[in-house]
Automatic annotation (TrEMBL):
Residues 296-326 are annotated as: Disordered. It comes from Micromonas commoda (strain RCC299 / NOUM17 / CCMP2709) (Picoplanktonic green alga). Residues 188-386 form the JmjC domain. One of its GO terms (molecular function) is P-TEFb complex binding. It comes from the Eukaryota. Belongs to the JARID1 histone demethylase family. Residues 308-319 have a biased composition (Basic and acidic residues). This is JmjC domain-containing protein.
Length: 451
């Protein structure tokens, strides 16, 4: 790579300037005796780390773009709970777990009809964003409206008939276009839904559910998502490096993930002063690079024309020779892409930046979790958040920190189980009860469900 290229030099200068500003803010907080100084110093450290890592890449003559990888799919009947924790969670490897679809809701194989959602939640008030507002890294109150969940469903579900492409003239003018019920905590806001959904057993060992004291995240998950076609999230990192899972009930979400160590290549901006940076819009970055590749491919093809009009057949990769004018480090980040469909469950390692595009009407539920793979990172960030935001967040840190999670006490189920035994009721997830079950301890969900 070439650090002298104008686009690369500009990006390095921007990252340095942000780091300088954060370091100045940290010095000011220290001098003022601010209780949050340790938080501000950490933000400055992360901003400087991003600038240094980007510069190291730019001056590495051997650096080459990294092709995106698909996320592997594994059927749940061939994936034991212990294997999942060892081979995917511990190694920070994303995976799609297949085969749980008929067991994710009380409606069984008919779960994608969302009857369970209408029966238990149609008359409940929810906050729905409009105008595709979640594509931004921050939200305003003006981006949100309060309405019944049933009203949101009535507006969104017809948008699949037909599902218009984003560039269609009518797209954006229909009632419900651009609306998104995003990350709505069921235990706190939609408790009537809890008996209708099933938590995948791969995540019930969550340390957040095994504390003596109630804390800020005791009742945060699972959370509900119901989205109109072509709504998107911002590119973001989940707080305190929480591991993440999502179970798809209806529709398809296009997911893109990046390795946590490659955050500096994604044009991060620590200017807002938070532990995790803001990022540019992913679809804008991707479009810039696609346009760049097309222009350079055409130029290379023209240069290869010989006097007889014949063209060289050797393929060209523009970014192998010259960086893109916009977000020039993006192709060097380790990337995974997947279209997550109905009945599939995705695991995202903690700290991985990720972004979502809803390809059609989607319904899913999800959660974050802490275990041995990210406990130390989570405790560190929670302590910093406590210094910044006060007592409640510090109590959350203390509630987790006081528990000794002894690896020898963990239940490692090595046997592969049948799919119906790989989901649990919310009541068995709450408090970590199901996390202590062995292979034979599952006490069943009525067989008549879904019939």
């Amino acid at each position: 790579m070439c650090a002298d290229h104008p686009a690369v030099a500009a990006e390095l200068a921007r990252l340095d300037a942000v780091a300088d500003a954060r370091e100045a803010a940290a010095a000011e907080a220290r001098d003022a005796g601010d209780d949050a100084a340790v938080y501000v110093e950490e933000v400055a450290g992360r901003a400087r780390w991003a600038a240094d890592r980007a510069r190291a890449l730019a001056t590495d003559a051997s650096a080459r773009p990294v092709p995106a990888k698909p996320i592997p799919r594994v059927h749940c009947s061939r994936l034991s709970l212990a294997t999942f924790r060892r081979e995917y969670v511990a190694r920070k490897e994303p995976v799609v777990i297949c085969g749980l679809g008929p067991h994710l809701t009380e409606d069984g194989e008919r779960g994608d009809g969302l009857g369970w959602l209408t029966r238990h939640g149609a008359n409940k008030k929810v906050a729905v964003t409009r105008d595709n507002a979640h594509v931004n890294s921050t939200l305003a109150c003006a981006d949100t409206e309060i309405l019944d969940l049933g009203e949101h469903l009535a507006r969104v579900l017809p948008l699949d008939a037909p599902n218009l492409p984003e560039d269609a003239q009518e797209f954006g003018s229909r009632d419900g276009d651009g609306t998104y019920l995003y990350d709505c905590a069921m235990p706190l806001k939609l408790p009537s839904l809890l008996n209708a959904v099933r938590v995948p057993r791969y995540f019930v060992h969550d340390f957040l559910q095994r504390t003596r004291d109630v804390h800020a995240f005791t009742a945060s998950w699972p959370s509900l998502f119901v989205a109109a076609p072509h709504t998107k999230s911002s590119l973001h990192v989940d707080q305190w490096r929480g591991n993440f899972w999502m179970a798809m009930v209806r529709g398809t979400k296009r997911w893109t993930l990046f390795h946590d160590e490659d955050v500096p290549y994604l044009s991060p901006d620590y200017g807002r002063g938070t532990l995790d940076p803001a990022f540019p819009r992913m679809h804008v970055m991707d479009a810039a690079h696609a346009s760049w590749r097309r222009r350079n491919a055409n130029a290379a093809a023209a240069a290869d024309d010989d006097e007889n009009g014949k063209k060289e057949t050797q393929p060209h990769s523009a970014e192998d020779t010259e960086p893109c004018d916009s977000h020039p480090l993006l192709p060097y980040a380790r990337r995974w892409d997947v279209d997550l469909g109905p009945g599939e469950v995705l695991f995202v390692p903690g700290g991985f930046p990720h972004v979502v595009h809803n390809l059609d009407v989607t319904c899913s539920f999800a959660g974050n979790f802490i275990d041995e793979s990210n406990l130390d990172f989570a405790l560190r960030d929670l302590k910093l958040l406590g210094a910044k935001y006060g007592t409640q967040m510090m109590r959350t840190h203390d509630a987790i920190d006081e528990v000794w999670f002894d690896p020898e006490d963990e239940v490692w189920v090595e046997e592969c189980l049948e799919p119906r035994r790989l989901v649990v009721r919310y009541e068995d997830y709450l408090g970590g009860r199901a996390g202590r079950w062995g292979a034979a301890d599952w006490d069943g969900i009525p067989d008549e469900e879904g019939r």
